[in-house]
Structures are given as structure tokens and as C-alpha cells.
Please model this.
Amino acid sequence: MDLLDEDDDFEGMSLSARAMMGARGGEPYLEGLNPAQRAAVEALDGPVLMLAGAGTGKTKALTCRIAHLIRTGRARPNEILAVTFTNKAAREMKQRVGSLLGGAIEGMPWLGTFHSVCVKLLRRHAELVGLKSNFTILDTDDQIRLLKQVIIAANMDEKRWPARQLAGVIDGWKNRALTPDRVRGTETAAFNNRGSELYAAYQERLRTLNAVDFGDLLLHMVTIFQAHPDVLQQYQRWFRYILVDEYQDTNVAQYLWLRLLAQTHKNICCVGDDDQSIYGWRGAEVGNILRFEKDFPGAEVIRLEQNYRSTEHILAAASRVIAENSDRLGKTLWTEAKGGEKVRLIGHWDGEEEARWIGEEIEALQRGTRGLHPFGLNDQAILVRASHQMRAFEDRFLTIGLPYRVIGGPRFYERLEIRDAMAYFRLAVSPDDDLAFERIVNTPRRGLGDKAIQVIQRRARESDLSLVMGAKAVVAEGLIGGKGLGQLRALTEMLGRWHAEVLDGADHIRLAETILEESGYTEMWLNDETPEAPGRLENLKELVKALEQFENLQGFLEHVALIMDNDSEEAEEKVTIMTLHAAKGLEFPAVFLPGWEDGLFPSQRAMDETGQKGLEEERRLAYVGITRAEELCTISFAGNRRVYGQWQSQLPSRFIDELPAKHVDVLTQPGLYGGGYGAAARTGFDSSAIEARATRADVYNSPGWKRLQERGTSAGARPRGGQIIDAEIPAFEIGARVFHKKFGYGEVMDAEGDTLVVEFDKAGSKHVKAGFIVPADQAG
Ligand code: ATP
Ligand code: MG
Model:
């Protein structure tokens, strides 16, 4: 069985790519590199480790290396495995390689995130772990719901032993590539001594559902590689060159996966910075980077010291803060960018005022009224420690009409009402989607309580039916009584009707509207009197609007599953709001770092859970934050903050004490809530004024704050997609002229999986499935 030869991803590449190969000579991309970078790019064979501080051009060198591999004919684009951590980074890398080679580069199917590459691999080999290739990827919500069932089935009290905790335990094992049978020793004591048993039961349930969670993507691939040497060997041979960015944040499973794949050619190039390891809480092992030379003897280790991103003040501030960490390799960084603005520090009364000030400041910078050149909105970013901080900015910016985009954190498609609506859409497309059924069967309330649902589940299991079919049987056989029966009948009838409409190819936008109306879902929110309800109704409208870009519901659902972060490129200039974690690897001319207060940043939870280790990880996060800034870095803190519904007096972050005075401008008026920083900030705190203010502010009870409060619980939520139905690679090149039956002629602009973005001459930009279009010259 040679799977590799049959597959598009492994077949030959386009003529243009072939023509590029073997071309030699003045490679312009080599010219801008410094000697160390050039060495990293040109040391093509054997293991290479690039270990260097922020902004030293690691990612740039990695990208040039890919271009160089292709240009020198060392590897075809599809023989290169290149992994990064975010979709955004992967997309940028692809574009950069293209522009380095002077044209769009197609056929790099193995450049992506760990997750996206593993999804593709697992679809090919799903049967080796008992799955079908069209498996579903669960998101956190589904995962928790499933775990809850597993806990209850094991006769444990879900209140004492919450599903979220079990999810954390299982994720931890998966991050370390431990299958249930490999959990040993003291670890078996986890979760009331039943962790590994429940883990096994959960995996079994996933298999029955033909589903995986995110941790499984890597775990299953490692399992397959370990148990099937023939499969592993094919890929070991195929991937001639392996490149990894942000290597300091790989976990054990990712590390094992890479090490297995690199064994044949040993052409692995890893790039990272121990000072930017910020995912320890999610199982990242900074030790992976330190172990590299042992794993790959004879590795060439390249250090870069010149920072090209930031001015000297910014770099000095970042270097000073990170120097407080004891557990680090230590590096020297320098920059030619002398002068520039000092790091700015300002204190505020409360979070609201902080948001107001930042909003005004952004507009001032945009107009260029700060004695500086104008900074466009795209050039400015607000980087927060916790996603609940975002709400204050979102509210403020909505009020003043300042365009912004939110990246990472809780996003549109993760909102409750959107997820509910999507569950209805999922059922209309595939009635076998049990998890979607469970989500909506009693939303809105239909008098179908836990008992009725148990009856449906039992009936479905009895005859090995999906829940929808089980529900039909319950109705036909009258297994439940009361109001519920009639409601369940109505629901199954509606589901049947909607599915038939999908099959008939009915207009999907109208269908979506029908579904939301007939199901009573819209009405549920219309009757809801909580302050969030109007916003939720707005979001539902927005959802239907989003459908317009797609040709059917299925295409839309896939698209949502694939955008793991809400980072689509948009034309309008917008300020970016994102978490510090999501900002890794990025850069912006002007960066705002709000909420530098002890307990918020460094986060109390991180310190409580892992003590000194947690504090050092928080400090690395501070280092990541400051080093995102190219020209202007503004740090702020507030004297009061409403945390989980309570007003609290805040103290400036200890990281503020660590900033070097020489490189900092204090903007706060002296004597006013922290007029200064360092020791001065603490003693200068006018706490009586703050207290008076806090009491008054306590009365303040706006919906914005309520939402902020609600958001607080979702801090640290992982960005995850929903369902991925298929992930084949389209055979269309970017720029190809194509024809679509409904939309006519157009040009392929982008591809993600087998979904293409096509700019149609008449119909505008649409997301379409590759299967629905043909090359333009074959139309008609
Ligand atoms: P991080 O650690 O934050 O991921 P990095 O080491 O990956 O940073 P890059 O993002 O590759 O750094 O580069 C930082 C900036 O410096 C980019 O704008 C890049 O274009 C620029 N740069 C890198 N190397 C050079 C160079 N030799 N000459 C000019 N500019 C450079
Ligand atoms: Mg980088």
C-alpha cells in the first residue's frame, strides 16, 4: 500500500515551481540577511537550532530557508513540512515564501499549524485508530458535555467531580502523548483514583461518535506512527525537510511527533526563544529546546543577537524585565534603532477610564497629534493578559465608533447563541449529529427534561440509532408522556423537513432564517429580559448575514470549523485587540499593554497554581508583550477594577517595578493614583480617593459591566473550531480562472482545505467547495 503516490499532496508540482527549481545565482532573498541568519538559511542539511531573542529575525530566516530549499531544488514544496502555532502565522509564512520566490507558491500542503497538518494526516489513516476518515472535531463545549456523561455513567457526583477538571487532567495526558493504558504510577490517583478509567471510557465514546478532540489530533498520529512503522517510514522518507517555528512552546506529543518524523533525513530546523515560552500551563516543555542538541547530535546551533524590530528603549525595557527570571539561558540583544520614544507608563482610576484613555490615545496617534508621525489603526494593538479585559475596550470602541478587531479570546462563533444556532444548522445538514441534537433538544425549553432525554438515549442505543432516529422511535411508540411528546414530535418533524430542504438544495439563507424562527430559538431571546438578549439577537442576525458569502450551509459550517482564529484579513483599518498569548510572533508599530496590576498581570491563578514557575512564565509573557512593539509601547494600570462582580483596589504590577527608569516616561500626573511607578507608584497611591470612588462606582451597574463580568469566566478559553467535514487539498492554483454553475467566472484568491475563496466577476467574493468549480477553459 503506497498511499503517498496516489495523493495530490504528494504529487508533482506545477511547472512554475519546477522551473524555479535549480535556478541559481543572485537569490535576492539572501541579500538582506545578516551573516548569522545567512548561515541558518544556507546550512540546509542536518539538524539546525536557531535560538535567539525576540525580533532577531528567526521567523524571517526560517521563511528564507524554505524559499532557499525550493529554489536550490533540495526539496519540492510538498516535501517540506513546516509548522507554526497559529493559522495567521502559517498564512503569513506562505505568503512570504511566495513573495521571496517572486510569485505565489502553490503546493505547500504541509505548511500549517500542528493541528491542521495532523488533521490532514489523520484523515488518511483514521482507520488505524478505529475512526472513519470523516471524523468530527469536537470543541470545548462538546468535549465537556461528553465528559459529563462519562462521569455520570460512572456513578460519580458531577458536582464534586466537575467535567472541566477531568478535561484538564485528560488534556494534560494527551499533551504528553499518554494513551489511557500508559497512565501509570501516582498519576492513576488523579480524579478520585478514577481518572484513567474515565479517560478510557471517554476515548471509547469518542470512537463511537467518530469524533476526536484537539488533543487527539496529535495523540492519534503519534500512536499511529509508533504502532505502524510502515506508515511512519513513508512520511519519514517523504518529508525531506522539517521546519518548526516557536519551538519553545511545543509539548511532549508535538515533540515526539517531530522527532519520529525527522529520524530518516534528520533535516530538522527548529527556531525558538526560551524567554518566550508561554504555554507551560498547556503542557509546553521549554526543555524540548534545551534538549535539541542531545536529540540531534552534531546539530548546528545558531544564535542571533541583533534585534530589528524595536527601538532601544523598548528593547532595554524588555531585557531588564526578563533579566529578573532565574531560569533562563540568557542572551544579549542589541539594536541599531537608537533613540525613539521611551516606554510610556500611565495609571488610571479604573478599567473604564483606562479604556477611554486608550481609545482617545489611539485616535490621537492616528491623527499624528502626539508629535509623532501618524499611526494607522492597523499599526496599533492592545494586548491583554485576560480575555475578560477585552469587553471594556469593545464597549468603549463601539460607543465612539472606533473600528477594531478581536483576535483570540472568546470569539463570535464561540458565543452561546451562535453555537446553539449552528447546532440547528448542523442537524439540518447531518441528522446523525448527536452532539448537536443534545445541545438543542430542550433549547428553547420544550418540556423535555433529563428524564425524557434519557428515554431518547436509551431508545437510540437499543437499536443503534442516532438520537434523532431514537427520538422518532420514542414519538412513534409513545415512550414519553405529557407535553413533551407533542413537542418532540414537532421537533423531529421540523428536523426532517429542514434536512429535506438541504438535500433539495433550497436557498440556504432563507432556510437558516426559517430554522431560527420555526425552532422558536429567536423567540426565546425575544422573550428574554436579561441585558444580553438584544446583543444575542444582533449576533443571530449577523450570523445569517455571514451565510451570504457561502453557497450552502455545509460550506459555511466547514468554514467556521476551519477558522480557528477569527483572523480573516479585512480591508478596513482596525485596531487589533488580542491576548498576549495570541500575539506571539507578531509585531505592531504601536502597542498598548493595559491592566498591569498584581493579580491580573501577573495572574494570581498562575502564581497560586505553580508558584515561582508560574511567576516566571508570566514575566516571559510581559517580555513577549513589550517586544511586540516597534516604535511605541504604552503600559497602563488602573487603581480599581471590577473582578467577578466585585470592585477591588489594585496595586500596580510588580513588573512595573522592574522597568528601567532611564527608558520610561511616566505620563500620570504626580500625586494621583500612582503618580510614578516602582516604589513611588505603590506609596503614591492615593487610596482614600480610590475608596471613595469605588463606593460610588459600586452603584454603577451598566450592561457593559455585566457582560464584562460574564466574560470573566471564559478567560483563557481556547480557540477551537467545530466540525471539519473534509480536508482534501484542492487542485486549483491561486490565481486560476475558474467557472461555477451559479456564480459564473472568477479567479481563485485563496484556499483553505478544499474550500476556495473565489473572486467572481459578477457575484463578488465567495467561499466555494473545490468540487463545485471547474477550470474556466472547461466550462460549458
Ligand atoms: P519573535 O521572537 O518575536 O518571533 P523573530 O525572531 O521571529 O521574532 P522576525 O519576526 O523574523 O523576528 O523579525 C522581526 C522583524 O525584523 C521583522 O520585521 C523582520 O522583517 C525584521 N528583520 C529580520 N531580519 C532582518 C534583517 N536582516 N534586516 C532587516 N530587517 C530584518
Ligand atoms: Mg518569530
The longest strand covers residues 629-643.
